[in-house]
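User: What would this chain look like folded?
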Amino acid sequence: MFEFSSYHFLLAAVGLAIILAYWLPRFVSGREPAASALLIGLGWLLFGWIEGGPEAISPTAAPKPWEVVSELCVIVGLFGVGLRIDRVFDLPRWGPTIRLLAIAMPLTILGVAALGWQAAGMTLAGALLLGSVLAPTDPVLAGDVQVGRPTEGGEHPVRFTLTTEAGLNDGLAFPFVHLSLALGAAALTPQLLGDWAALDVAYRIVVGVVCGVGVGWLLGKVLFEFPRENALAETEAGVFALAGVFVAYGVTELAEGYGFIAAFVAGVSLRRVESEHAFHVRLHDFSETIEHALTAMLLIGLGAAMPVLLSALDATGVLIALALVLVIRPVAGLASLAGSRLRGRERLVVAFYGVRGVGSIYYLSYAGSHMELKNEAELWAITALTVLVSTVLHGFSAAFAVERATGEKQTD
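Assistant: Here's the prediction, encoded as structure tokens.
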């Protein structure tokens, strides 16, 4: 009469992991729970011991599902981040963000790639891919350091900088991923670099921005102005957020642009239409709910795959992961922010709290599903450890550190 169902066991265990990850931190902190590290740990604890389970779910064996789920997490997260920004036209506030994107991110890629090439013995293409994968900060896992919900404020320069950096550098890391894949298939030549600069850098970035602005503006008109007397924004249709980001991302990718840039810019552009309307909050909250659900399942899956992913880890891989989180990103961040409008403690917080997470998972699974990777096991081992270290170290300290730097208490 009673029969054990592995599927129903899986559902119950996933649900239990999510409940525990959000509930347990409440015993030690009144802040919003830093659930990311616990989701990975509980996925490891609940599923990592199942014989054959980690191998079956590992992204090295099946990268495509990981690519799709992480892609959805990132684009929904980027759209929601774009909606949050209240004061987009305060141009001096963008100065630190531009410095992080133009200086800190390339320095981070260079530093990680140099370690991968010289210390880990990777190919040039593999080392560059590792640097590109680990360079972007995460828009999904960095809620504790970002600005508040639409119209809520809380746009201290520290939060504004970390939010806008995360909103843009996922897309801006893509040219370097493309370059690493090109190097894996062909020799480095002036022709290859010229094609890369024209297509992967200039064209795709411009298309991402233009499509994001255009789609966001059109979505705003549909929501608020046509028909004005019976506007869609007067409904409770929060699912419009998901539809909107799908349109922005899909159209941009069809035009061979960077959909990640378009998703963020579409959120920013949409927010400029009737910017104080309460419907923006509904859109943001709906997208955030979807983002949290997808991210929770992805991180549990990452934890379940940890026994396989970390089996290829050696001392050099540990060194690279720790060097990125503790040295390379903070030093690159501080160097890029020298002379900026941020003060001493603010610079330290911005430089240190470059959270790594879902974006890195996406880029590596994207690369793995598009070509046969050398050093794939080592790449995943280092990436998985970096995400774990970042979620633990950043996740449990970010809220307190940002509160100290900004003088603003986090609201539950």
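The chain has a mean pLDDT of 86. If you want, I can go into more detail on any region.
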